[in-house]
Amino acid sequence: MSRHVAIVTDSTAYLPPQAMERHRIVSVPLTVVLGHRALEEGTEISARSVAQALQKRKPVTTSRPAPEMFAAAYRAAAAAGADGIVSLHLSAEFSGTYDAAVLAAKDAPVPVRVVDSGMVAMALGFCALAAAETAESGGDLDETVAAAEKRAEGTAAYFYVDTLDYLRRGGRIGAAQALFGSALAVKPLLQLDGGRIELREKVRTASKAIARLEEIVVERAGAGAVDIAVHHLAAEERAAALAERLRERVPGLAELYVSEVGAVIGAHTGPGLLGAVVAPR
Questions:
Q1: Quick one: angle between helices 141-154 and 122-136, nearest 10?
Q2: Is the pLDDT of residue 177 over 70?
Q3: Contact assessment for residue 34 and residue 60, using Cβ atoms and an 8 Å cutoff
Q4: C-alpha span between 266 and 50 (Å, rounded)
Q5: Of 1, 2, 177, 273, which one has the greatest count of Cβ atoms within 10 A?
């Protein structure tokens, strides 16, 4: 390992494999429980399998990694030459992943700084990339953590779901509970706020909700340099169309990623998810 600070994240960052390999970012997988089978996200179960299970109303739950999985990742990083580790994870409001990493960090062979990004998906992924780039340029633990936290502060994530039912079942929607009484009559636009999922707006139809999502992203992106990620679950055509429109409308666009979310996030949002992450540089 050429740098002194190693970067560890979790499987909900949904970073492109090429980016993870290029920056030597290690990902610890969360678990999806499908029926009575516990499967690791990213290697043993796909988002499409989760979508199909949800459509058939099969029970799907998720769980954090065991602390030992983080401990093994920290030991491997130290053995590869790291003298410090920054471990970046999805919002602690969503999962016990952060807590598992904190437990493992106590006995790690090198100092580990565990960071609750308050984010998920590529909102977390962009933080991991910022940390990796800082570490590669010689940044120490404090500088690497600061780079990740700065990226998180400027990053916004918005998403549309066909139904709130999956988020309701998993207890992930926070203040959006106020929507339940009229959930069938509206299409909700949601956002990450303070590490929680909150209601942004209520829109009457899916097409209007997606158009409004596009407008919000364009407004947030502004004219400066910005990276964007478009996520979906079983909505590939919608995602491709949104990405193409954003390419045309965001003047400062640097990188644009388009990907299907993984099994863990898919289990809580359901098929039809369309989201966008905006991360100013």
A1: 150
A2: no
A3: yes
A4: 7
A5: 273
